[in-house]
From TrEMBL:
Protein name: Helix-turn-helix domain-containing protein
UniProt-listed Pfam families: HTH_25 (PF13413), RodZ_C (PF13464)
Segments forming domain Cytoskeleton protein RodZ-like C-terminal: 172-241
Keywords: Membrane, Transmembrane, Transmembrane helix
Stored Gene3D superfamilies: lambda repressor-like DNA-binding domains
TM stretches of this protein: 113-133
GO molecular function terms listed in the Swiss-Prot or TrEMBL record: DNA binding
Region: Disordered, residue numbers: 149-168
Xref: SUPFAM superfamilies: lambda repressor-like DNA-binding domains
Keyword Transmembrane belongs to the record: yes
C-alpha cells in the first residue's frame, strides 16, 4: 500500500521489500511517485514491499522491477538484486521461464506491408511537390528562382557585469550519474522533478522563490554558478531534503564551509 505520513521505517529491515519501503519513506515519496518514475505498475510495487512475488511471472521481472525501484529512491540496486535472488529462490524454483523482462510497455509495430506502402506514398508526394514548385511542368510560366539567403551578422554576447557574480547568477545542476531529484520553491510548488540521465542539465530559475532540492545521492549532481563549481550539496550516499539551491544560498554555504567557487571545466 502507498506510504502514509504516520508510517515509520523498520528499525531492522530484513527483506528487500522492507528495505525499499524504508528508502522510499526516507525520501518523503509516495508509492505512486515511484510508479510514475519507473513505469512499474502500482500493484507490483505494492507486492514487492509486501515481499509477495507470487503475482510476477518470472524472477527476471521481479529483479527488473526491484532494480528500477532502487534507482528511483537512491538505493543500491546491485546489492538488492543479489538479495532478491536469494530471497525468491524457492518462489520461482518450480516455474519454467519462457519470457524476458522489459520495463516498458511493448511497442506495437505495424505490418511491414503497411510500412512499405506508406514510404512509397511519401516519396511520391515529395516528388510531386518538387515538380510543382521547382518546374513549370504542371503550370504555365517559368520557375521562380529562389531568393538568395540573407546572412545574419551575429550579435556579440553581452559582457557580464563584474558585480553579477556576487549578487546573483545562474545555478545549473548537471547529473554525473543517473539520479532522481526534485526542485521546489518556498511554497512547496514543484519546479522540476524527474530521474536525470548522465550529462543532463537543469537551470534553476533565477526568479524562483527560495528554490530547494530533495536529492537521494548528492555525489551524483555537479552544481555550478555561472559555470563555476561549488561544493557538493551533501555527503556521498546520504539523502538530503529542503536544501536551498539559489545562487545566494549556495555562495553563503560555500563561504561558511571555507570553499570558494572555482571555474568549471
Amino acid at each position: 500500500m502507498d506510504g502514509e505520513p504516520g508510517e515509520t521505517p523498520n528499525l531492522f529491515p530484513e527483506k528487500v521489500g522492507e528495505k525499499l519501503r524504508d528508502a522510499r519513506l526516507a525520501q518523503g515519496m509516495e508509492l505512486s511517485d515511484v510508479a510514475a518514475r519507473t513505469r512499474v505498475p502500482l500493484r507490483h510495487l505494492q507486492a514487492i514491499e509486501a515481499s509477495d512475488y507470487s503475482g510476477l511471472p518470472t524472477p527476471t521481472y521481479a529483479i527488473g522491477f526491484v532494480k528500477a525501484y532502487a534507482r528511483a529512491v537512491g538505493a543500491d540496486e546491485v546489492a538488492l538484486a543479489k538479495e532478491l535472488r536469494q530471497e525468491t529462490s524457492d518462489t520461482f524454483a518450480a516455474r519454467e521461464v519462457y519470457e524476458s523482462y522489459d520495463p516498458t510497455d511493448p511497442v506495437r509495430e505495424p505490418p511491414s506491408g503497411i510500412v512499405w506502402a506508406g514510404a512509397a506514398i511519401a516519396l511520391l508526394l515529395v516528388g510531386a511537390l518538387a515538380l510543382w514548385y521547382g518546374t513549370d511542368l504542371f503550370r504555365g510560366g517559368t520557375a521562380i528562382a529562389p531568393e538568395p539567403a540573407v546572412t545574419a551578422t551575429p550579435t556579440p554576447a553581452p559582457t557580464p557585469s563584474p558585480t553579477a557574480s556576487l549578487t546573483g547568477g545562474q545555478v545549473t545542476l548537471t547529473a554525473t550519474q543517473p539520479v532522481w531529484l526534485r526542485i521546489y520553491d518556498a511554497t512547496g510548488a514543484r519546479l522540476f522533478e524527474k530521474e536525470m540521465a548522465v550529462g543532463e542539465r537543469y537551470d534553476v530559475p533565477r526568479d524562483a522563490n527560495n528554490p530547494m532540492i530533495n536529492l537521494g545521492r548528492p555525489e551524483a549532481v555537479q552544481v555550478t554558478i555561472n559555470g563555476s563549481n561549488v561544493p557538493p550539496l551533501g555527503e556521498a550516499g546520504r539523502a538530503i531534503k529542503d536544501v536551498p539551491v539559489s545562487a545566494e544560498a549556495l555562495r553563503a554555504r560555500a563561504s561558511t564551509a571555507g570553499a570558494v567557487p572555482t571555474p568549471g571545466t
